[in-house]
Amino acid sequence: MSACIVGWAHTPFGKHPEEDVESLVVKVTQDALAHSDLSASDVDEVVLGTFNEGFSPQGFPASLILQADNDLRFKPAVRVENACATGSAAIHHGLRAIESGQARLVLVVGVEKMTALSGPEIGDTLLKAAYLKEESDIKGGFAGVFARICDLYYQKYGNQSDALARIAAKNHANGVHNPLAQIRKDLGYDFCRTLSDKNPTVVGNLKRTDCSLVSDGAAAIVLADEETAKGMANAVRFKSVSHVSDFLPMSKRDIIHFEGCTKAWQQALQRANVTLDDLSFVETHDCFTIAELIEYEAMGLTPPGQGYRALEEGWVYPDGKLPINLSGGLKAKGHPVGATGVSMHVLTAMQLSGTAPAEIQVDNPKLGGIYNMGGAGVASYVSVLETRD
Description:
Layout: E1 3-10, H1 21-35, E2 45-49, E3 77-80, H2 86-99, E4 105-113, H3 119-127, H4 132-135, H5 141-157, H6 161-175, H7 189-193, E5 201-203, E6 206-207, E7 216-225, H8 226-229, E8 236-245, H9 259-272, E9 281-283, H10 289-298, H11 308-312, H12 329-333, H13 340-352, E10 367-374, E11 379-387
Parallel strand pairs: 2-3, 2-4, 9-10
Antiparallel strand pairs: 1-7, 1-8, 4-7, 5-6, 8-11, 10-11
């Protein structure tokens, strides 16, 4: 790889009734440029990632970024979409512009405004990332999709409700220390494990604490080629990236194994010439707790069906051998769909630059891994980032 992240910005995730897509985009654009000590005139290209699909009435959003600064006028700007992996898709678009030599500096923004819709409307909008010819009748929207995955996993490997509760409790405990997180409350294992009025069933075996949050928010990064990044204070290098896509219909895959996730991790680690053991931490896509459990197995942390061991043996906690979702993950930080992939890269860059909140800052990190997923294991993006000497 020959590109670096040289600046970033991130709104708090949550319910922001006073904000719209435009105001969120403008804020993180201005903040990311300031953080990278660049002016808008320095930017060669602009990429906006947003899922939308009905979340916002504003279509054709790419040029909204120009509202942040008049000097962005006449820069090439494009909107990128790939379901819940939209943010990483936008980053890949920016990386290709740099690697092709067409750009030295690329501004990438991810955004979503979800909370203006009602609960049923949100469910219908998210379900558009499923294969509607076969999956549109699944009750519970996308939560129902992952409840079906959870049922199949339990049928093969046994009930893993304890493991799911541990994942939820871990990520909420981590989110307490992240000022950008939507929920900053340590719910505890017992609360996450127990069905109650405050933690009811959403669908199937998934309780409220098993499901990521409906969120508004935006995040931005500035990408630079290696030469331009020299001497820039905040530079964090891409060591490798990978993107693979799998069939959209769940019926064409063994859905409990996330094979695309496995292939993406294998490609990224091979390209970086490292192993999973070399990583200092990972941000992974816990849209539902069952997804994080399966991702432990897909990335190679445990054999299939043994993801629970990563929790029982403490590997994925802040003091474990591979801390996962120190940010709180989608579970506590929030999941504004188009912003999530960019957010993961911002939080990883903060860790590698030593600027994460002290309570979740890894000691002397060298390599950070990111897994961002679109749909039910359909689009898989992995990044391996490293500190820049």
